[in-house]
Amino acid sequence: MYIGIGILAVMVIYLVSFYNSLKTALVQISASIQEIGNQLKRQADLIPNLIESVKGFMKQEKGIFEDLTSARHQIDSAVKSNNGKDIDKAQDMIGKVMGSINVIMESNPEIKSSTLVSDLMNELRDTSDKIMYARRTLIDLSADYNVKISTIPGMWFAPMFGFTPQKGLDTPM
Prior knowledge:
Layout: H1 2-53, H2 61-81, H3 84-106, H4 109-112, H5 115-150, H6 154-157
Helix pairs in contact: 1-2, 1-3, 1-5, 2-3
């Protein structure tokens, strides 16, 4: 009888531990998505400073500001929803704005030689690196979580607790 109680106690402890590890993994995945959103917001906040510093050279400025405003709204809603697909869309939009700015900068040597512009571009590059790191972290966390719920014994217990596979982000880094 004591052996049966002991085995039952070990199983309960294992299930509680397993459940807690999966909940922890989900919280980490959510935090990683939020970090990507935070870095995208930072990037979107730096872009107006860059545009302001090269304003005299920009004939297409109005279109870029409209795209930037749209991207910032998309980032805000993506961060609030904590949804990977929304974050992907926001990151794509920011990438397009940055592409437009880069074209303008490359066509104007005066802009390229500006220290302020150079500093802002370095900050944007640093933020892009942080986004890539956060995406890599999200991919790793999602993969670890998915392995836990798709291998024995996780595949037996995860469905009992309602755990389903997590998808990372769709767009490439």
